[in-house]
Amino acid sequence: MKDKIKIALAQISSKREDKEANFKKIEKLTLKAKEQGADLVIFPEMSLTGYVVHDQFYELAETVPGPTVKNAEALAKKTGMHIIFGMPELSDKTRATVFNTAVFVGPQGLIGKYRKMYLPTHSVFEEKRYFRPGYQTAAFQTEIGNVGLCICYDIFFPEVLRLIRLKGAQLIVCISASPAVRRSYFETLTCARAIENTAYVAYVNLAGVQDGLQFWGGSRLVSPNGDILAKAKYDEEDFLTCEVDFSDLRTAETFIPTLRDLRPELFDKLKEYAELL
Amino acid sequence: MKLTPSVFDGDFSETQQRICRFIKEYVENAGAKGIVLGLSGGIDSATIAALSSLAIGGKNVLALMLPEVENFSQKDIDDAKTVADLFQLETNICDMTEVMECFYDQIPVFDRKDRLCKGNVKARTRMIYLYYYANKFNKIVCGSSDKSETMMGYSTKWGDAAADITPILDLYKTQVRKLALYLRIPEELALKPSTPALWPAQMAETELGIKYETLDLILYGLERFMTPEEIASQLKIEKSTVETVKCRWLSNEHKRRMPIAPKLGFRTVGIDFRLPRHTY
Q: In what order do the strands lie in the sheet with B35-38?
């Protein structure tokens, strides 16, 4: 496993319902990331289809693995890159059960997938209308390090990222489709989750406007002590690369040893009281 | 939560940017050649005119002035021209008087004394002009409804409320005035009392029975699920005033939605048929 990797935050504006155009963009930016020496390129939540597509999710969803993932695997193999992107995933056991999924591919093929656990269904969000929630957190040991995946609203729930970290993830990737009115929450939470877990958090958000909903961009890499190491432009498409130095985790974990000081018995209480809410 | 006028303070630079981005994106994706809007000389239309100009350039914004004899006001025309000059808009003046007279004469049951019905015909006639120009010149219609009027149902269905985009719909009148000042719309115009101009001497606050400064705080509280008791207590007003506003707020939902249909099919428009809104 490498001690240092370079990651690319590909903050794109997806063309709604146009998987072909969006995958071309994924291809183009993966090549760009490769040229800039990156090991991993990250695209936003639902970057393959756009986020505001309502009933069309049923028509756009694909199995994972499936046609698009096959193309992504070929792209990863050709470039030697690791790629994370978001798409609606169709269950291979049913005809219309869909998940909001993050796909992770590498030069060896499909590394894994993560199905969003917390589906916002309030305000402008209607995810429970279309998606089944996932039941598994995701952390994958790869040649570029242990990488965990979460999606957007998951970050409001510290237990999700805690679990990812406890599974070994040192870089937690959060792909997102967050509209502008939520910006301050995500700016706070990305730092908080990095600090409380002493982990890198790479947050990649959509940009652009879909049905009047403006995605605020602002993708970033946050260090394990909460410093923002790289930050993309607000509101518009942007692309940047930055370095993750896993050796910094040692310093962070000794300075504020949140993992050493974990109290597992509190988790039992958490469960008990959560059920009584 | 404290209900004070400061809740309407904000970063109007960001508000401007967001609205301008919204307008530009919509016009571009629609493949339209710009915007057409009604420029009345009032604050709301001045604000959307300014924002449209900043978003896509004044030469792409056609501002229609639609006077007619009953409501004619040289001051309003002058104010509209001031805004048009300031933001370098294309303009066109159409006198609606004869068209209105045709309606009054030709609708068999027309009652000139029924000023509400007559006023609504006026608002809908303005809409016809705007959409004609939009169709003819491949533009989109930009509406000037604000959140205060929309939540109170203080608009004409398919009249002034009809548009392709409504850039200031999510701003209360108090916020629109602040945004207008930020956009350097002259203060006299930004603070001018609002009127729908459906009949002579019609004033919005008189008709609504409440000052916008108070109304907007009530609406702001209701939007955030505050109870009438809490709102009345904080604003030191009668609870019945808040309840009257809330009653209107609830009863006008029909003006804010597409026409309702009985649920008969698998997916029903306006109920559970949800498709992305493409502009191209």
A: B90-93, B61-65, B35-38, B140-141
